[in-house]
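Would you mind writing out a protein's amino acid sequence and the numbers that encode its backbone to help me picture the idea?
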Amino acid sequence: MTADTHHERADHTSDAARTRTALLAHIRHELSSPINAIIGYGEMLFESATADEGAGEFRADLEKILTAGRQLRTRVGDLLNPARTETPDLDLDSFGAHVRHELRTPINAVIGYSEMLIEDADAPEHAEFRADLQKIQTAARQLLELIEDIVRFSDLEADSATLSPADDGVSSMIANLVSTIHAIDNAHARQTEQGGLVLVVDDSETNRDILARRLTREGYEVDTAADGALALEALARRKFDLVLLDIMMPGLNGYQVLERLKTTPELRDIPVIMISALDEIDGIVRCIEMGAEDYLPKPFNPVILRARVEASLEKKRLRDREQAYLAQLRVEREKSERLLLNILPSAIAERLKEDQGVIAESFTEATILFSDVVGFTQMSARITPVELVYLLNEIFSSFDELAARHGLEKIKTIGDAYMVAAGLPERRADHAEAMAEMGLDMQTALAAFNRARGTTLNIRTGINTGPVVAGIIGTSKFIYDLWGDAVNTASRMESHSTPGRIQVTAATFERLRHAYLFEPRGTINVKGKGDMPTYFLLGRK
């Protein structure tokens, strides 16, 4: 077998390990959110029930919900501990079934007791109490769905290894993560080869020398400090992987240095092993509670020294690697969120993530604008399709900026037509005025485009105000769209308008006549509507 073949197999094994680690980190992260919600709302409800004599009857069941929530947190921490899950011979299918078995009982307890409490708390004065119970129940059901997915661990892992970053879902995030994590892992590999950088802090020169020499023999790079102040100076200069910290020192003692480390954001993740004589065990316990990783008794046993230093460094490597995975997952999720928000309004995107059915909402009054670029068809015969698209993108991008500035919702573009709405999905009283400003600014923006490009393009615009239904339908390629006669009439106002003019209906005219100038067009015959009085919007009064 050639060296290249060995290398290829090693890379394949490394990628598989990265995929598994990233997947398990993602699952661990996803499970934590609903569990924290169950415990958080449960604690607040229990406090309220304790303070409110009228809600005292609920305390027993709330305590059971809290107990089950804390069991969930403990079991997830134990079952998905990286030290347990990153073994190469772990059978993901069997492991997923075991996780599901361990978590279902406390989840069912949360759901069952919350359902009974919701039924019991039917009095009007308990409305807020019921609302928080429903949040607990929703979190528990979400958790139940998540653990059903855990059973498909091996399927997700297989998908992650084959999907490209352009695909959707968790698997694509994992696949993209694996493709970008090589540099991070290479850095950790170099760190492991070097052994890690350790700072020994002890006021005894003999102790410092013994520890430094033993750690150097084990392959670690070692720096020393004779007191707490010098230790903090060293930590400010270099990025250490581990600190061995004596408690009894002149000046800043070990407690004070540890407190500084754990309250300084850039230093708090550095593991600290306390150095202490055996009769200072109470002090060591306090240090562990303050965030220390472990302790070393004096005199130093070489075997214990090696084991505890390596264990602390390995925990740090695993923690750093997990944080890197989660950071990359957050980046990928933010990309997905930005993409979703570029397609749908934020309020609708949030509802879509929670609801899987039709999302539709009635608005008693909104204002809709349609605009069509006049002369674009003739221009398409003189320039290449690519140049045509770039020109149209420049025009519509300026319209997008105007829509954002006026707080309007761009609905869609259809060829060289542009559609925007005001008063939805967030209702606003000044929707007609906002749309009037949009229409006038669009004409100004196109005039600036013509001057810059040397073109003579124009836009034909129509506006109408009335009731609409807005939402999304279908199961794929979602678009936030509008329906109703008011939408059709706005489209007719555009198609029956003239280049360079903004034609509005009587409904829009009545809402704007107090602040804007109009020119009556008279009555025109509108396709599908018959005779209608219309007006041209000229500008602001």
About this structure: The first helix runs from residue 3 to 51. Residues 64 and 209 are 55 Å apart (CA to CA). The chain has three domains: 3-162, 188-319, 346-540. The chain has a mean pLDDT of 78.
